[in-house]
Amino acid sequence: MAIKRKVEEDDIEPKAKSLRSSEPRNNDAISPPSQPQPPLTARPSSSVASRSSHSSSSVIALTNREKRQYKYKESMAILNYQLYCIAKRALASPISRTGSYTHLVDTYQQQAAYLKRLYCKTYGDVAVFGIGDCGQLGCGQGIDESYSPRVVVGLRGMEVGALALGGLHTLVLTERGEVYSFGCNDEGALGGIVVDEGFQPCKVEGFVPSAFGPNGAGLSSRDVVTFEERERQVGLANIVQIVAGETTSLALSEDGDVYMWGSYRDKEGRAFRHLPPPDDDRVPTGRKDMSQLSPDESVDMYMPPRGAQDWPLHLCLDKKAKDISAGDGWGAAILEDETIVTWGVGTSGEMAREVPVLDKKTPMKVVISEFLTPKPPTWNGLSGKKKVAAISCGAYHLLAIVRECGMNVYGSGLNQYGQLGLGDNVNRNKLTKIEFFEGRSIVKCEGGAHFSCFVNNTGKELYCCGRGDYGQLGISLEQPESGSFETTPIRVPLVYTIQKSKVTDPKGNCIIESDIVEEDQPEIEQISCGSSHVLVLTKDGDVYSWGFAEFGACGQGKRDTDIMRPKKMEAKLANAQGAKYKIKFVCGGGQHSAMVVSTDSRESGGES
């Protein structure tokens, strides 16, 4: 079934169409906060070969979940010792009256939360809802839509800990560190699956690290082994994070390696990908049979950097990564030193650096060096390295939370709907400080297609800006006019009764901030933006959703209208034995959504 409702094509430069929802969105869990000084450092092995040489140690012999538990305890011990050292030095001097101690505590809490999210997930089953015409619900060919959450039978008992949803595909991360995928595969986004559409979950294989990555030794080392030997020794990587773009999938391993499969599509619909590492000798043209090309095709069209990446490719960064995010045709990562890099085919400023024109005349060597090679962004009016605590890629814009004197928020990229929150609708090609958030202690940021959401450190203050004509800002009483937007962030309470007598414009902002009852606001545990809808998971386990609801992506049952204000999801789920599910993780995609659900008896985080 073709998707009938799509966002207008004048949102961005004209883009060649394929079988895609026009408003993609990746999302994964809350982006990691920064670390106290001295920085917390991971301890992976120093080379690809050395990973296997330590196989006799007790840590490597453990299961992936046990290794993550060990890593969590080790990292928390280091973090606690760092806090002790900093406090000891501070208390040896006269007590300062500045806010430095408050900032230190906030930083510690954020880093502890990051470590828990990374290593101590709660595992369970998967429930999906929304459009599924390309298999993105994973429920088989007979189910192409669901207006309320339904459990994916093929994933029952798989102990899923995280999800990532793209335009028309879904990624699943299990407690074993394995990745499964389903949905549209016409650009390789499912990874290693030979069909165009995968209606049932299939495992993604081929996560083989290169000697040229941050954990590698390079060709100068005598430890370098052949690809086949590395594949045999390493097997499947212990993946700890997954994210999805429109036709792109990214994964982060426990060792800080980043893997990519799928493709980055430019405004003309051309597919690009990274060059394989020099020691990856898999067929560069992928799974397509070169003997079956049509007369108007050539082998060059499928040689990197063109074409789709059919299996996970190690993206060789200079340093280990600690967090990743993906936009429409680009990606970003926070590195171990808390700097960031961006890459892809972004041409609207989303990569926060100057790039040349990208068209049919652009030489491939320029595409490789200026677009596909990960590089640091530029900062407006700032010099030196910035300590980045969290990132989120919207479809065509980048959001970053930076640890300075407190937490500040920066944005770059497409801004025609004010999604950067800068008070105007002018695009930016440098990360620019969002002055509105000065002193508001923002710790979570999420980008949708053309809107953004932010949450402060109490978890009770949510702000939104950008496009709102589908209700994705959560501030209106009635459906806003087409293309309406807010350029300055607006407070969005989850619990709020609009007094119609005070409303002058029911299609505009109907929230009076002074009328918000603060004690009624639930604490936000996680927030996820789909293309044009929002899902919020509270500490109490409730889910609120709002925005584009025509195909059920909000999980509120069949509707003819979009949802203008945050609405609690009332759907009740139970397993085959009748035990009620609790919601542990939410994720929004193009026009579908998914949740990790668990019964009390199956809660199995890192410490439980």
UniProtKB/TrEMBL annotation:
Alphabetic keyword roster: Guanine-nucleotide releasing factor, Repeat
InterPro entries xref list: Ran_GTPase-activating (IPR051553), RCC1-like_dom (IPR058923), RCC1/BLIP-II (IPR009091), Reg_chr_condens (IPR000408)
Ranges where the RCC1-like domain occurs: 126-594
Keyword Repeat: yes
RCC repeats: 124-176, 177-255, 338-404, 407-458, 460-540, 541-599
Pfam families per record: WD40_RLD
Repeat recorded as keyword: yes
Region (Disordered): 1-60, 270-301
Record-linked PROSITE patterns: RCC1_2, RCC1_3
Composition-biased stretches (Low complexity): 45-58
Ranges of biased composition (kind: Basic and acidic residues): 1-26, 270-290
Protein name: RCC1-like domain-containing protein
